[in-house]
Specification:
The complex is a heterotrimer. In chain A, helix 3 (102-113) packs across helix 4 (119-129), helix 3 packs parallel to helix 5 and helix 4 (119-129) packs across helix 5 (145-158). Chain A has helices at residues 51-58, 80-85, 102-113, 119-129, 145-158, 175-190, 202-205, 230-240; strands at 12-22, 25-36, 39-44, 66-72, 77-78, 87-90, 163-167, 194-198, 211-216, 219-225. Chain A is α/β, with parallel strands linked by helices. Chain A has eight helices and ten strands. Chain B is mainly alpha-helical. Chain B has one domain (9-162, 179-227). Chain C is mostly helical. Chain C has eight helices and no strands. In chain C, helix 3 runs antiparallel to helix 7 and helix 6 runs parallel beside helix 8 (195-224). The radius of gyration of chain C is 18 Å and the shape is globular. Classes of the chains: A alpha/beta, B mainly alpha, C mainly alpha. Chains in contact: A-B, A-C, B-C. Chains A and C meet through helix 2 and helix 3 of A and helix 1 and helix 4 of C.
Chain lengths: 242, 231, 226
């Protein structure tokens, strides 16, 4: 029943001279960067720098005005629907239907992605994110903010994405929640995924990101691979983002 | 600063239009015979039909530009679609107003659901919608409007057909005049069409050039800000 | 076929959500009934005049009610940005289009039925003398509305002035369809119904729907992405 072909994980993403114009506004101007598997990239910059646009382009939901994005597996290039199959997204909104329960939401998306939607599989994902069993059959609109976040994460993880895109995932989380999410993302990275995090919360990403990309007014102004503790991250950010 | 390469186009077409306007006006009054049925007020028909003809040309150009834009996303097609839509709104207004004046003068009614007028009205509404979308739909206005134009253009044959079938004004005057036109009337008519075609091209090219100039200024400004020349 | 199956999934999801609260069903039906009542009060009830105005009343009621329902249906996909979730999935974009269009079509058909019945009652006219051609005409109207409406509602999703822009864009495009449907209905409820003429107009309705469906299928994918 599932239509998904096997062995198509995204290993590398090549972003070449990508530019985006919205009518009169230039959101991105010629950004070139390469993302590699088994890494967590922190995409930083002030508001309006183009981070969300770049993330949108990576998610295939925004068409670049110029340049290209190529998704490569170990052996070949991946395109179109196959790329989307490998992408997971976590945004500020939950991307889930409030009138449906956690099970129903996940079942729906499992069907769309062609992955196992049996109650055992769904239960396993919900266990992993820590959504309490009693809530799983209630409508999502009755959930607390923390529970909604967990459901959103479950939705993103359900399809075992090899490219995980996160847009301000730490907003609205308390310190404990942010740490837990950061740990989970680190685990995914260690398992081989490419994780891209757009965030203002340097503390949450410190110690985990191994690739830092800073945008300013649509241009790439800084890119480096390495390990970053909070102090170093702050320095680099203040130096380049302004 | 050197002149951009197409700067001769607008003045050329504008001059041709002006000459044509003068010539046709003279011809309409001195050369073209009076219509046997409608006499003097028929003369407005020359401008009315010319504008109606060009309204359809403009719609076609807009539709073509919109399809090209949706396929290639190149700004030049979008410019063409936008400019032709705006000019079409202007020409459409002329069609409706002259049609109304003619109707009042000839048959004493300000409006009739005669097929050409009805069709022009519907097309005009679609084009006004196009311009409103461009103004107020924000960032995605170009593709939205392009889609509207594509649907609208596909709908034109249906509108024509429907209006034709339901036309309850058998002697609408316009049909009679065009069909039974004598030679002289036909000559003046086509000269009018040619004149207003030049006028259409003047407006179209001027508008496209102004859009391009705006874009160039914007890009220069961005580049200046990037390199720090401008704050 | 994957496209149909995914479209079915989307439509089934919408149906399930709608059946929980029935919000859109109730409000659409009530609004449709309200419009019909307002029209019948506002226009003369002399049967001869009513017979002439009735098709216009019916089709206008459907147009207005359909717009409201479509707006609400897409509001749901905007709330938690679930439209983005749908577009992000590997499901073909056309599946999303068909899934949502089927959902709206079902609602419009329901409202059409209610309005026709109510109008029939209030004006003392029988709409149901020739149920088959009437049903065809109204069904094609519903399909045409859902088709054009879904395409533009989906693309207007994030636009600020969408509530005003939607009718501005969609109504002029739908005018030919409404007029064809109107003429067909007119021939059907006249004192001396003209079935041949009615079927002719219904045929043209079908061609119109076909043409616009082809355009939707060609352009939907490229416009729903920014």
């Amino acid at each position: 029943m599932p239509d998904a072909p096997a062995g198509h994980t995204i290993d590398r993403v090549e972003i070449t001279k990508v530019a985006k114009r919205y009518g009169n506004e230039r959101a991105l101007a010629g950004v070139t960067v390469e993302l590699a598997g088994k890494s967590m990239c922190a995409l930083l910059g002030h508001n309006g720098a183009g981070k969300t646009t770049l993330l949108g382009i990576l998610s295939t939901l925004v068409r670049p005005t110029d340049g290209s994005v190529r998704y490569r597996s170990a052996t070949a290039e991946i395109r179109d629907a196959d790329v989307r199959r490998e992408i997971g997204m976590l945004a500020h909104s939950s991307l889930c239907y409030p009138e449906l329960s956690a099970y129903e939401n996940l079942e729906f998306f499992a069907g769309l992605y062609g992955v196992d939607g049996s109650s055992t599989a769904l239960g396993a994902v919900l266990d992993r994110v820590g959504l309490e069993p009693r809530a799983r059959t209630r409508a999502a609109r009755t959930y607390s903010r923390g529970m909604v976040q967990r459901l959103a994460l479950a939705r993103a993880l359900l399809t075992k994405p090899s490219l995980l895109l996160l847009d301000e995932p730490f907003t609205g989380l308390d310190r404990g929640g942010a740490i837990a999410l950061g740990t989970e993302l680190g685990k995914l990275r260690d398992d081989g995924a490419i994780v891209v995090v757009v965030t203002h919360d340097l503390e949450a990403i410190a110690g985990r990101a191994d690739h830092v990309v800073i945008l300013r007014r649509g241009q790439l102004v800084f890119e480096e691979r390495g390990s970053y503790d909070y102090e170093r991250l702050k320095d680099v950010y203040h130096q380049h983002a302004n | 600063m050197s002149q951009p390469k197409n700067s001769y186009l607008v003045p050329t077409f504008a001059t041709l239009s002006a000459i044509g306007f003068g010539v046709t006006l003279w011809l309409i009054y001195e050369y073209a015979p009076l219509d046997r049925v409608l006499f003097f007020n028929q003369k407005i028909f020359y401008f009315h039909v010319a504008h109606a003809f060009l309204l359809f040309v403009a719609v076609g150009v807009c539709g073509f530009g919109s399809v090209a834009f949706l396929k290639t996303r190149k700004p030049k097609w979008d410019d063409l679609a936008l400019a032709s839509a705006e000019v079409a709104v202007a020409f459409g207004a002329v069609v409706l107003i002259t049609g109304s004046i003619w109707g009042k003068a000839a048959w004493d009614i300000w409006w009739s659901w005669e097929k050409r007028l009805t069709m022009s009205l519907l097309l005009w509404l679609t084009l006004v919608g196009y311009v409103l979308v461009r103004r107020f739909a924000g960032a995605s206005a170009d593709r939205l409007a392009a889609m509207l134009a594509v649907f609208g253009t596909v709908g034109v044959p249906f509108v024509y057909f429907m209006v034709d079938r339901s036309d309850r004004h058998p002697q609408s005057g316009a049909e009679g005049v065009v069909a039974k036109s004598q030679g002289e009337i036909k000559i003046v008519m086509w000269l009018c069409v040619a004149t207003f075609l030049c006028w259409f091209l003047t407006l179209l090219i001027a508008r496209i050039q102004s859009v391009r100039a705006e874009r160039e200024v914007r890009e220069l400004r961005e580049r200046a800000m990037d390199t720090g020349v401008l704050q | 076929m994957s496209l149909l199956r995914q479209a079915g999934r989307v439509a089934w999801k919408d149906l399930r959500i709608e059946l929980r609260s029935k919000e859109i069903i109730y409000t659409m039906v009530f609004f449709g009934a309200l419009i019909v009542i307002i029209f019948t009060i506002a226009f003369p009830r002399d049967v001869r005049l009513a017979r002439g105005a009735a098709p216009g009343m019916l089709w206008s009621a459907i147009a207005f009610t359909g717009t409201i329902g479509l707006g609400r249906a897409f509001d749901r996909e905007r709330e938690n940005d679930t439209m983005r979730a749908l577009l992000l999935s590997p499901a073909p974009r056309l599946a999303i289009f068909f899934g949502k269009a089927i959902g709206i079509c079902a609602l419009v058909i329901l409202v059409t039925f209610v309005c026709t019945f109510l109008l029939s009652l209030l004006l003392g006219l029988s709409f149901f003398a020739h149920p088959l051609p009437l049903a065809c005409a109204l069904l094609l109207g519903a399909i045409g509305f859902s088709n054009v409406g879904t395409v533009f509602a989906a693309t207007l999703l994030k636009v600020r002035s969408r509530d005003v822009l939607f009718p501005v864009i969609v109504y002029p495009l739908l005018v030919p369809m409404f007029i064809m449907g109107l003429y067909a209905t007119d021939y059907l409820i006249a004192e001396k119904p003209n079935l041949d003429a009615a079927w002719e107009w219904i045929g043209f309705l079908g061609i119109y729907n076909g043409a616009f469906l082809v355009v939707s299928v060609w352009t939907f994918e490229s416009v729903v992405i920014e």
